[in-house]
Amino acid sequence: MTPETRAKRARTGLADPPAAPTGSSPLHSDGGWASLTSGPAGLIAERLLSSDVSGYVRFRAVCAAWRASCADPRAQGVADRRFHPRRWLMLPRAYSRGGRQRFLNVSTGECVHARIPDLRRNYFLGTTAEGLLVLCRKDGHVVQLLNPLMGQLTDFPRANTMLRTLWVDLRLRSFITVHSAGLADDLTVALLYNSSELAVAKPGDEQWTRFSLDLMGSNMKPSVLPYAGRLYCVTLKSISVVETAANRQPRLAPVADRPQAARLYPVYDDDGNLILVHRSAARGDHSSEVSTTYQAKLDTGDAVPMRGLGGQALFLSRGRSVSVPAKVSSSIRTDTVYVCNYGKNLPEAVAFDLLGASAAEPASFGEDDNANLLWSYVMCSWI
C-alpha cells in the first residue's frame, strides 16, 4: 500500500483546533477574562508562545483586547523564531481537506488544518528543520522561505545561482532537490541539495554561496543541523559550522571530528541536546542492523558515545527522518528506531530497541494512529 493510499484511508479522529469561544462565555462577560489588562494578557501570551505558536494564535483569537496586548504573528518576519512552526510537520497532500493542508505536532500529537499559499505558482524544494517550506517562484526563480502556519514569506537569491549551469528550464525542481536545510539566528539559511551541494545566503544577497562537499565514492548522507542559533553541517570528515561575518563570504569551519559512519540522523531530545544516530546494516538485511548513538558536544568539539535516544523515538526512511517523543502514540516506544519500508514483501516498519530490551521486530500501525502519519511523512518523496 502506498503512502498516498494509506493517507486517503486514514482516520485520525483529530479535528481542527477549536473555534475561539463566542457568545456569553465567561471569557467575554463583564469582569471576565476579557477584562485582563495588557500586562497580564501579554505575559500569558508570551508563556503560550514559548511553548507553541498555535496556542498563541488561539489566545489572540478570543477577543480584541487580547489581540491588542500581543504581537500579530503575520506582521513579524520569518526571522522571528518565536513564530516558527516548531515540531509541526506538513503531511502529504493526500491528507489535505478542502484545500487546507494537514499538520501534525510531533510533540503533542495534535493535528490541525491550515490554508497555505497556492503552491502551483512555486516549485516546492523541501523543508527546513524549523518547519519552514523552501519554495522557488516559477516566475523568476526567486527562492523563498514560507512559514506555513503564519503565511510569512522571505525572499532569498534566485535559484539559478545554486546551479553550475546558467541554464534553468521551467522544471527547475528536476535540477534542485533540498535534502536538509536550516536557519541561523541571523537569518542565514543553508540548503543541502542534490546530495553533495551546500548553498548559503541571507535575504538581500545577490547570489548563493556554494560549497561542494566532495562525497565522491562515499555513500554518506550529509545533513544541516541548526543548534544553539548556529548552523552546522555533517560532512565527510567533520562536523563544521557555517560562519558568516559582515563583508565576508560564508565559510565552513570544522568544529568536531565526525563519527565514522555513513549515515547519521539527527535527534533533538526534550532538553534541546543534539544526538546523532549512526545506522549500519547490509542492504535489505535488518537482522544485521546496528545503531550507535552519540551526543554532539559542539562547544568542546566532541561526539560522545551514549545509550539510547534520550527517551525519543526515530522514524526514518531512505530519504527522510524525524524524531518524536513516544507520548504522541501508544504504539511508539522510547529509545527505538523505526526503519520504515515500502514493498510487497517487506514489513511496514522494523523497530530496533536501542537499549536492548527486545530484538528487532516488525511494527505496524493502525489507520487512526499518529504513528501512521509519521510513517506516511517519512515515506513520501514529495509533500
Automatic annotation (TrEMBL):
Residues 103-342 form the KIB1-4 beta-propeller domain. Residues 1-31 are annotated as: Disordered. InterPro entries: KIB1-4_b-propeller. Coiled coil: none annotated. It comes from the Eukaryota. This is KIB1-4 beta-propeller domain-containing protein.
